[in-house]
Write a structure and sequence with these properties.
This protein is mostly helical. The protein has helices spanning about 10-25, 35-45, 50-60; strands spanning about 65, 70-75. It contains three helices and two strands, in the order H-H-H-E-E. It has a two-stranded antiparallel sheet with strand order 1-2. The chain is globular and about 35 Å long.
Length: about 80
């Protein structure tokens, strides 16, 4: 599946919105692993730096937490 990006918004924001929505709808629950940068690259066709921006934004919002060497997970509220 190829993701169709809107031209008027940065790709990292659009991917962050997708993951944010999955968390809001309960598709990703607290403690669930969120897609890694490599998984986002494969699924959305984005660059490493774009995937890192997605994780940074979601961490800044308190939606995910990252454990070094382990991955990123939905934060417990």
């Amino acid at each position: 599946m190829t993701y169709e990006f809107a031209d008027d918004e940065p790709r990292w924001k659009q991917v962050a919105d997708v993951i944010r929505g999955q968390i809001a709808r309960g598709e990703l629950k607290p403690g669930d692993r969120v897609p890694s940068v490599l998984q986002m690259q494969a699924e959305y066709g984005i660059s490493t730096s774009t995937g890192q921006k997605v994780h940074r934004a979601l961490r800044a919002e308190g939606l995910i937490r990252t454990q070094s060497g382990m991955g990123s997970y939905v934060a417990r509220r």
